[in-house]
Hints:
The chain has a domain at 4-54. 22% of the residues lie in helices and 18% in strands. It is built from 2 helices and 4 strands. The strands form 2 sheets. Strands 1-2 form a two-stranded antiparallel sheet. The chain has a two-stranded antiparallel ribbon with strand order 3-4. The longest helix is centred in the middle third of the chain and has 12 residues, at 39-50. The N and C termini lie far apart (41 Å).
Amino acid sequence: MLRVWTEAGYAAPAMAPVQLSCEIDGCTASWSVASPKLMKKSMDVHRAEFHPGWVKPDPAPMTAYRLDFSGRGRQF
């Protein structure tokens, strides 16, 4: 982890705010959160408040290419 020297000693650098936007059913809401770790909770709160009937779509199926190269070495 990168540490930055300050007058009070070494400290982790401040994270930049993250700009979020919603595109569910044409929603054009946008807002910012203080750090990347607050993104998921903020999106969950927005969905619960403004899109209570929203259901997370099923993940796309894996393509043949992704199945063939799933991280294991080739077997000859």
